[in-house]
Amino acid sequence: MMQSQFEYAKDHIQQGRMLKGDESSQAGGDKSFGEWPAMNTRAFFVRLMDLIFSTGLIVGFAYFMYREIEKQKGTNFGVSQKNEFEFKKSEEIKERLNDVKGIDEITGEIHNVIRMIKDP
Hints:
The chain has 4 helices and 2 strands, in the order αααββα. By secondary structure, it is mainly α. A two-stranded antiparallel ribbon has the order 1-2.
């Protein structure tokens, strides 16, 4: 006679418990099918501490990376660019555009480009 799938699975699980040495299944199986076995308190706390430690490690690493990225936001590969330029008033500048060598040729080229843009 053929057993139903449920009975087959139940017998299979009980046989597995007997092989592992589970006392409750050897003592006549007084526990109802589907109950969780009693967990060892020490093993529970070891698992809990492992979970807390690994989660803390991941969160700590993410926070460290976030701080490093925030430090480098306004910099060029970690080199600060603050106070790199000095602003001067126009009266303080001694050099003028007319002092640049070849400025006449450059202004002529610019005028040619402007004329070509206006009248293609």
